[in-house]
Specification:
The protein is an alpha+beta fold. The protein contains 19 helices and 11 strands. The chain is elongated, with a radius of gyration of 28 Å.
């Protein structure tokens, strides 16, 4: 039995009591069958938009050709859409028209993969394409002919690899072949949609799922090359910045070109470039050299970067060992680790940028002589420095 929360049951029961059919559909059914909590509860029904608004007075129409409504129940919103079916696709993305459908089976037939083409009415599953069996087998398979489905909407190709990454599912053979055959069609997609899908893929548990797409040159239009080595993205910490850096490193892609092609922010590029610069930095010879290298801070925790770099390059292992030694020593290497703060320096009449300048000088001294990192010693040194200034 699939668990439904009270809000979903209320909506389905209201529809059934009004003589309408209604089902939970899409990712919610897929996730509940997998035994994990559903993120969103989307529903499809036989009722018209006008009927839905009459049945649920608090509902709001949120658009779409077939009139999706949002129904608030107990602080949560549920999207309910009349059954629909797609017309012919004309631009590898959007159907020329979307029409009302008469049955849930017609509605499910328009969906991308069998695992997303299952409906549940609170008592029984409607599963015309064997999606439940594919969930059990951990398999991603298109609804209908995969070549046709990808030719209709190229975004489905990215969704395929995103689901493979997030769910950890294998891709059925004919579906994989068709995705690679049509991979070049991704060039016609808006960069915002490509970035959105790739962001989700990169955060999945199995980002290596994207490698067949890269080998098919599917992301060339977005300045992401085919892999030049066999390193694994799966081994990287599950963070956006380090995963994107790993993808660029794995493929030899130019960071600036990749970031611009996908419309990332300048701040994201700066952080990505800082990670890359740290990777290519000269290895310090001792703890003092390491402290000087780390003093300016990093865009990610040092532990995360060392873990990532060691997974890609064994030459980083001695550097990680040196960092572990520094961490165990608790010797300071950033201004935040000093035994005095900027507030304490205001007693010497320092303000604004001068406080930052003196803190940097104190840090210089402490990096060279860690025993100076005591409040009285640092305040005495700061007093000397202000007199010199």
């Amino acid at each position: 039995m699939i668990y439904l929360d009270d809000g979903a049951r209320f909506i389905l029961q209201t529809l059934h009591n009004a003589g309408e059919s209604g089902y939970l559909v899409g990712g919610a059914v897929r996730d509940l069958l997998r035994g994990v909590p559903a993120g969103d509860f989307d529903m499809a029904c036989s009722a018209s938009t006008e009927t839905l608004l009459a049945l649920f007075p608090c509902a709001k129409c949120i658009g779409g050709v077939c009139g999706t409504v949002s129904v608030p129940v107990a602080g949560r919103s549920y999207e309910v859409t009349p059954y629909r079916k797609d017309g012919a696709y004309i631009d590898h993305r959007h159907p020329e028209q979307v029409e009302r459908a008469q049955t849930i089976e017609e509605d499910l037939a328009r969906r991308d993969f069998t695992v997303n083409a299952i409906a549940y009415d609170g008592e029984q599953l409607v599963d015309p394409f064997g999606g439940a069996a594919d969930i059990e087998a951990g398999l991603l398979r298109c609804v209908g002919d995969p070549a046709q489905r990808f030719a209709e909407d190229a975004l489905r190709i990215l969704r395929l690899y995103r689901f493979a990454s997030v769910l950890g599912f294998e891709i059925e053979e004919s579906t994989a072949a068709a995705a690679q055959l049509h991979a070049q069609a991704l060039a016609m997609l808006p960069m915002e949609r490509v970035r959105e899908e790739l962001q989700k893929l990169m955060l999945g548990s199995h980002p290596d799922a994207v490698l067949p797409l890269l080998l098919a040159n599917g992301l060339d239009a977005f300045s992401i090359n085919a892999p030049r080595c066999t390193l694994s993205l799966d081994s990287l910490p599950q963070g956006m910045l380090i995963r994107w850096w790993g993808l660029a490193h794995l493929t030899g892609s130019q960071l600036m070109h990749m970031v611009q092609s996908l419309g990332f922010s300048a701040a994201f590029y700066r952080d990505l470039a800082a990670v890359d610069a740290f990777y290519h930095s000269v290895a310090p010879k001792d703890l003092t050299g390491l402290k000087r290298q780390l003093r300016g801070g990093l865009p990610l925790p040092a532990e995360e970067l060392y873990e990532a770099f060691c997974s890609f390059d064994l030459a980083w292992q001695p550097r990680r060992t040196l960092y572990d030694t520094l961490k165990a020593s608790k010797e300071p290497y950033t201004k935040e680790m000093l035994a005095v703060s900027g507030g304490a320096l205001m007693a010497f009449g320092l303000r604004g940028a001068e406080i930052g300048r003196v803190l940097e000088l104190l840090l210089d001294a402490v990096i060279a002589a860690p025993q100076l990192n005591e409040p009285q010693k640092l305040l005495g040194l700061a007093k000397q420095l202000t007199k010199l200034a």
